[in-house]
Amino acid sequence: MVPEASDDLALVHASKRGDLAAFEKLVKRYDRKLFRIAQHLTHNREDAEEVVQEAFLKAFLHLGQFREDAKFSTWLTRIAMNQSLMMLRKRRPTREVSIDNDFHSDDGNLPIDFEDWAPNPEQLYRATQLCEILRATLQELGPGLRVVFVLRDIEGFSLQETAEALGLSVIAVKARSFRARLQLRERLSKYFNKAEKSASAESHSGLVETRPSLECDLPSE
Prior knowledge:
By secondary structure, this protein is mainly alpha-helical. It has 2 domains: about 5-90, RNA polymerase sigma factor, region 2, helix turn helix motif (Rna Polymerase Sigma Factor, Chain: A, Orthogonal Bundle), CATH 1.10.1740.10; about 115-205, Arc Repressor Mutant, subunit A, CATH 1.10.10.10. The chain is built from 10 helices and no strands. It starts with a helix and ends in a 17-residue tail after the last helix.
């Protein structure tokens, strides 16, 4: 067991015994990570703050349900994601929001050369001048794809950690990751094709091309 996971477990045990200071350490350790995930899913700072508060409250009240065969951080992330989806349902009462409703099957039709096919929009995401564009594009994905991209490509979760957090098989996570990247690439390609045509038109008309510098206000550690 890695040191951090072992330390988490010790804090969880202390929290179960009523040690509030121990749980506060867990809150300080993971509140920024949960906030980032919630904000990426809800696209709203106030909603994300509420999600994090509710997630920690539920975690504290249900510590007895935490199975120690998984990492505490993975269990906590799953609670935060469920709270985020509940927040989305409140916003869209006429439309069911679920991480499972994006496609009928995840296990089939996965390209054999997955790594070669997969585009890397996560590199664009980290580029300051493009982050606002990708942030808006990310919101166009269904929740089931969006959450996989957030965990894998933004938060750096492994395939196994993502599968555990979502209650999916590793194959299903690979499939969703591929589809999320592919859809993002298609959407971003449309945007940049329009931008290139616009820049070309300005160039022919004698206008000087300027590239906007977009700043991200994504929360960081």
